[in-house]
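Appendix C: a fully annotated inverse folding record. The material below is reproduced so that readers can follow the format used throughout the book. The structure is listed first as tokens, followed by the designed sequence.
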């Protein structure tokens, strides 16, 4: 099969084959937009190369592609002829899924020592020619030959010091020539000489791009975003155009709408007299595109038209890169722009209202998992002191955390459960781990389209970039801001919506309601069949969930009520009780607490179902740690001594699989009766007050129908007194799923506890797996973390089987899901046709509603 396509041949081929960049270029070329000639080496070739280390016949196809580029540009590769400059190309990676900055690129490829002379002659600009060569040497040296970029930067700084100049711009052509020779000699001495044959350069670069698919930062990125490991990258080989030929040249990035707010209008940044990588790398801070209106109105007008045509062609917000070579505009890339959750919603709604897309498309356009980002807090300006710094508002939301200057520092704070703010001069793709784990990101340099800004928005991490008054010394673990020293660990607050940064922890305020989101959800709701409830065990959570549109509570965990300080002594007396009287007294007190708790929650959810789950954790969780008890007992504390003996008796080697849930409730039926009576009594009192409580009760962790039968009998005793309410069981052990047909006739509903079901299906402790699961995913052993996203193949199979068999055995059976997966979009879509409702934590109720609607479209 063909593996190299010219843009003109590539029209209509898939993104999977051409990669996003190649596909975008082919589409733009087809739409008549100005694109420099290029060809694409397919992802298929990359996959073959990574599998076998070679692609027979590829080189002939590449040669033919180069011949075509020579024809289209009228230039010769590697050597200028007469007055024509040589054909130089860029070699870029382009995966089917956008992975900004994660893989490698080489620019100015094809330049040789003779080529430099020809380029200098043709452009009349020897400085530019030598600058192009030294850039090629540094990029090629890094990407293909494996030298560290600091080495080239170091040699550049050394030369500047020798010449006594401060900036790169102050170096003349001879200086850059000298630098190029130093680079060449360095690479030679290192045993990795730079190939002065342009064809060898090309071959090396294409192979390096193939291999860059496997580099560690690309793998990390794929893990974070759940991108499959086996896609491979395409390679785009494109005739170079130069943005660094003078003041009438430049390079920029444009968004057809504002990626932070979604506001319609051309938005972006431009760097005069610079090459493309300078913008994305965030090394120099570019100027807003708006400024072009002043000194290049024609260009600005042209960009506006390009933006309009791009949107009409792609029917989505585009993020495009362009270069201006001596006043002439070229588009180098376009892709659907990354955007904040706010922007995603606004763009989808407004595009539907403009008639560019349908309402259904608008609903599908918004990544449901990103919605919690919409609800991110901001700094409370009424309580905020004067900001220490102001930068660009790159990713909304406010964050409070400890200053960390390196990935490692962020990881250290994270390991201690402390929030960190990553503070960097600028970020590079190497910083991805720290950016992912940090609560906020702050950089001294870079614009709104710098790496830091793009990645932070994608991750949903609040970020302030380009805080020019900040000087960061990562090696020394400190930074300076307006004369104030920030040391590692100091608390910082930043607001990515305003760009302000404060010393210390500043109070935050929750986000306000979102009218546009309401509109989008109103378009989505008619397509939703799956019910959405919330996991809530406090009245505040219940009220918040209801405001987000929850249709009831799918899981109210009662143990949280036991943990409260005023109840704990009574819980402990219950555990210690040696006589029925002692137990009865403790239960009596707890009954009063529970009844009040239930009343408040039922009241907050008046008219909607509230599923109360009876006590689940093992009793020892309510006791102080053994060591503490032992110490106190030693000091003569008698109560501690009794608790210690009880705690030792209750101690289990594996409490997760121990005396908890149904096992505990059936062998300590006093607890069962107390909780259920409190619930029934609470409902009764509310009804008497004129309310409409809808309680349901559920038993956790059953594994056998006999347990359910016994629990039901206990419940029936109270139902006879108060009247019945829906009675259900969690299905969270594999055995309960396997025996669903026998259990279903005994209950009114199942609620799948996918946290435990995942834990037990995988044999993977949910409390400890965090220590190694990320590595498992990184190594490609698991495609994603099954504690976050439901494993459809295994756990999903258990769930489907139990749902189907349960329903067959009891046609009136209601089915819900209440594990963490209940608020994860992919998992919600999976169960959308299988169950009656899902239950999500309050902030993820919106995600669940949208995902469930998307499943119906
Ligand atoms: C579950 O196991 O999925 C569940 C909802 O219960 P918990 O997380 O409380 O064990
Ligand atoms: Mg559970």
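Designed amino acids, in order:
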């Amino acid at each position: 099969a063909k593996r190299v396509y010219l843009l003109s041949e590539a029209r209509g081929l898939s993104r999977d084959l051409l990669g996003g960049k190649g596909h975008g270029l082919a589409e733009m070329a087809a739409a008549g937009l100005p694109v420099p000639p290029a060809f694409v080496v397919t992802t298929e070739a990359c996959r073959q190369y990574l599998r076998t280390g070679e692609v027979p016949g590829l080189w002939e196809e590449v040669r033919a592609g180069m011949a075509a580029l020579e024809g289209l540009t009228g230039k010769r590769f590697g050597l200028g002829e007469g007055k024509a400059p040589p054909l130089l190309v860029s070699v870029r990676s382009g995966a089917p899924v956008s992975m900004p900055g994660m893989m490698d690129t080489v620019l100015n490829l094809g330049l040789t020592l003779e080529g430099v002379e020809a380029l200098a002659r043709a452009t009349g600009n020897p400085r530019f020619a030598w600058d192009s060569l030294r850039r090629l040497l540094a990029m090629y040296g890094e990407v293909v030959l494996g030298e560290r970029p600091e080495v080239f930067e170091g040699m550049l700084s050394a030369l500047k010091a020798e010449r006594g100049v401060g900036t790169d711009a102050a170096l003349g052509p001879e200086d850059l020539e000298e630098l190029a020779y130093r680079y060449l000699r360095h690479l030679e001495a290192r045993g990795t000489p730079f190939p002065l044959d342009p064809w060898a350069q090309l071959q090396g670069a294409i192979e390096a791009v193939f291999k860059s698919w496997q580099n560690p930062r690309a793998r990390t990125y794929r893990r974070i975003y759940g991108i499959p490991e086996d896609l491979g990258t395409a390679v785009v080989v494109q005739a170079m155009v130069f943005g660094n030929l003078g003041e009438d040249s430049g390079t920029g990035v444009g968004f057809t709408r504002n990626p932070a707010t979604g506001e319609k209008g051309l938005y972006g940044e431009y760097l005069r007299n610079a090459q493309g990588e300078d913008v994305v790398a965030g090394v120099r801070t570019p100027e807003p595109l708006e400024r072009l209106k002043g000194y290049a109105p024609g260009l600005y007008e042209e960009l506006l038209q390009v933006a309009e045509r791009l949107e009409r062609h792609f029917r989505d917000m585009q993020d495009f890169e362009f270069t201006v070579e001596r006043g002439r505009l070229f588009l180098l890339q376009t892709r659907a722009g990354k955007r904040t959750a706010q922007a995603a919603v606004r763009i989808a709604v407004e595009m539907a209202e403009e008639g560019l897309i349908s309402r259904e498309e608008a609903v599908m356009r918004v990544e449901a998992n990103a919605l919690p980002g919409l609800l991110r807090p901001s700094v409370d300006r009424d309580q905020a002191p004067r900001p220490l710094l102001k930068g660009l508002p790159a990713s909304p939301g406010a964050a409070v955390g400890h200053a960390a200057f390196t990935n490692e520092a962020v990881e250290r704070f994270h390991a201690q459960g402390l929030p960190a703010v990553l503070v960097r001069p600028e970020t590079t793709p190497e910083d991805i781990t720290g950016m992912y784990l940090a609560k906020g990101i702050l950089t001294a340099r870079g614009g709104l389209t710098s790496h830091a800004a793009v990645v932070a928005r994608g991750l949903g991490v609040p970020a302030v970039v380009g805080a020019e008054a900040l000087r960061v010394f990562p090696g020394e673990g400190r930074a300076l801001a307006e004369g104030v020293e920030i040391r590692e660990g100091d608390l910082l607050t930043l607001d990515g919506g305003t760009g302000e940064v404060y010393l210390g922890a500043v109070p935050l305020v929750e986000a306000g309601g979102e009218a546009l989101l309401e509109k989008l959800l109103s378009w989505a709701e008619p397509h939703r069949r799956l019910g959405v409830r919330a996991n809530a065990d406090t009245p505040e959570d219940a009220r918040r969930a209801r405001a987000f549109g929850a249709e009831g509570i799918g899981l109210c965990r009662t143990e949280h009520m036991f943990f409260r300080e005023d109840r704990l002594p009574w819980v402990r007396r219950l555990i210690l009780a040696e006589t029925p009287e002692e137990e009865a007294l403790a239960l009596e007190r707890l009954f009063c607490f529970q009844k009040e708790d239930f009343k408040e929650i039922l009241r907050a959810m008046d008219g909607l179902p509230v599923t109360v789950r009876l006590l689940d954790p093992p009793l020892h969780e309510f006791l102080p740690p053994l060591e503490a008890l032992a110490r106190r007992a030693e000091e003569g504390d008698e109560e501690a001594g009794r608790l210690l003996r009880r705690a030792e008796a209750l101690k289990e080697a594996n409490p997760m699989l121990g005396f908890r849930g149904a096992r505990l409730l059936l062998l300590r039926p006093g607890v069962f009766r107390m909780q259920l009576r409190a619930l029934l009594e609470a409902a009764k009192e509310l009804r008497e007050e004129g309310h409409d409580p809808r309680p349901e009760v559920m038993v956790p962790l059953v594994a056998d129908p006999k347990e359910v039968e016994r629990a039901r009998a206990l419940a029936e005793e109270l139902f006879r007194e108060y009247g019945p309410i829906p009675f259900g069981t969690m299905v969270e052990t594999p055995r309960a799923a396997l025996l669903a047909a026998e259990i279903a006739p005994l209950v009114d509903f199942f609620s799948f506890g996918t946290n435990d079901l995942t834990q037990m299906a995988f044999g993977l402790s949910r409390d400890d797996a965090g220590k190694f699961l990320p590595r498992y995913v990184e190594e490609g052993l698991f495609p994603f973390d099954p504690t976050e996203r439901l494993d459809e193949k295994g756990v999903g199979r258990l769930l489907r089987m139990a749902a189907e068999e349960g329903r067959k055995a009891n046609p009136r059976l209601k089915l819900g899901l209440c594990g963490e997966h209940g608020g994860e979009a992919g998992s919600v879509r999976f169960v959308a046709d299988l169950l009656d409702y899902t239950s999500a934590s309050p902030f993820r109720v919106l995600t669940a509603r949208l995902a469930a609607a998307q499943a119906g479209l």
